Amino acid sequence: MNMANTEFSLPLRVYIEDTDAGGIVYYINYLKYMERARTEFMRSLGYAKTAIFADDLMFVVHTSNVQYLDSARLDDEVVVTAKPVKMGKTNICFHQQVRRGTSVLCRADIRIACVDQKNRKPRAMPVSMQQTIQSFITVPEE
């Protein structure tokens, strides 16, 4: 099944602990929301943390490019997306957004590296994982 035109989405509500004194989401929490969305995306594919750890693997953030466009506020309902857009044997690049309705509040490109759990060196993902994630990546038409 090719899921290339879909994105994973996770609905969240903004709680008091997510905000600053003015009731606006503290900037670092957008990255936490994105981490949750990537984790739940992988879980939806059958790769929960326990499955990944069982193979002595870990995923770590290698690079992030984040743009903050608008503020989420206390009690807002937001949707956080995760869409793999590129991958290699040892990494996945995700395009992610935090949206309130149709308004994009934050967007980011995040590169996740697959590393050996013991020595923290890059390690290839299992081929079945690579194939599953690759099915979500859109191949540009020529």
Estimate the strand proportion: 35-45%
Sheet with the most strands: spatial strand order: 1-3-4-5-2
Query: What value does the Rg take, in angstroms?
Result: 16 Å
| Silhouette | globular
Named CATH topology: Thiol Ester Dehydrase, Chain A
Would you state the CATH class? Alpha Beta
Average of pLDDT? 91
Terminal Cα span: 22 Å
Poorly predicted runs are none
SSE succession:
EHHEEEEH
Total of helices: 3
Strand segment count: 5
Number of domains: 1
- CATH superfamily descriptor: Hotdog Thioesterase
Structural class: alpha+beta
**What is the correct CATH architecture?**
Roll
Helix content: 10-25%
Main sheet, how many strands, which sense, barrel?
Answer: 5 strands, antiparallel
What's the arrangement of secondary structure elements?
Blueprint: E1 8-13, H1 28-44, H2 49-54, E2 57-68, E3 77-87, E4 91-100, E5 103-116, H3 127-134
Antiparallel strand pairs: 1-3, 2-5, 3-4, 4-5
Question: Can you tell me about this structure?
Answer:
A hairpin with a 3-residue loop joins strand 3 (77-87) and strand 4. The protein has one domain: Thiol Ester Dehydrase, Chain A, CATH 3.10.129.10. It has a five-stranded antiparallel beta sheet. The mean pLDDT is 91. It is globular. It has three helices and five strands. By secondary structure, it is α+β, with helices and mostly antiparallel strands.
